[in-house]
Amino acid sequence: MTVRVQPLRREDLGRCAELEKVLFPGEDPWSEQSFRSELAAGGYYLGAFAEDLLVGYAGLALLGRPGAYEAEVHTIGVDPRWQGKGVGKALLEGLLAHADQVHAPVFLEVRTDNAAAIGLYEKHGFEQIGIRRRYYRPSGADAYTMARPRRTSD
């Protein structure tokens, strides 16, 4: 089945919150209101859809001012039934394309034990630049900070 990636809509946010609970048990999953706040603040959010079912989501924030933006990946989540099928890759590539339009370097945090995500990020030009001890709450899991340099040409 083909998955299409498009801007996330307000009516998709309840499903995002449902997926958060499945994907991040033992952590502090985002609520529907958290997603609403991110959209209201101007975040760039994408959804991955298999027919009409939201199977993944991703969000990016641009910080700074024109000509000196930095981008920060706030979240990427994929329904467990759709993991390993290229959905996360498609979402990440959509976020990176947006950051590349404004020539922004991109930063993110990822759990140190999430080998699949780390591998995906490395394949897209990210490098580990630091570690945040006890970053995730309430579990206290560590996170790597990763960065991808700004892209100034195609």
From TrEMBL:
GO terms for molecular function: protein-N-terminal-alanine acetyltransferase activity. It catalyses: N-terminal L-alanyl-[ribosomal protein bS18] + acetyl-CoA = N-terminal N(alpha)-acetyl-L-alanyl-[ribosomal protein bS18] + CoA + H(+). This is [Ribosomal protein bS18]-alanine N-acetyltransferase. InterPro entries: AcTrfase_RimI/Ard1 (IPR006464), Acyl_CoA_acyltransferase (IPR016181), GNAT_dom (IPR000182), MshD_Acetyltransferase (IPR050276). It is found in: Cytoplasm. It comes from the Bacteria. The lineage of its organism: Bacteria, Bacillati, Actinomycetota, Actinomycetes, Pseudonocardiales. Acetylates the N-terminal alanine of ribosomal protein bS18. PROSITE patterns: GNAT. Gene3D superfamilies: 3.40.630.30. Coiled coil: none annotated. Residues 3-151 form the N-acetyltransferase domain. The keyword DNA repair does not apply. Its main location: cytoplasm. Its EC number is 2.3.1.266. CDD domains: NAT_SF (cd04301). SUPFAM superfamilies: Acyl-CoA N-acyltransferases (Nat). Belongs to the acetyltransferase family. RimI subfamily. One of its GO terms (cellular component) is cytoplasm. Keywords: Cytoplasm, Transferase. Pfam families: Acetyltransf_1.
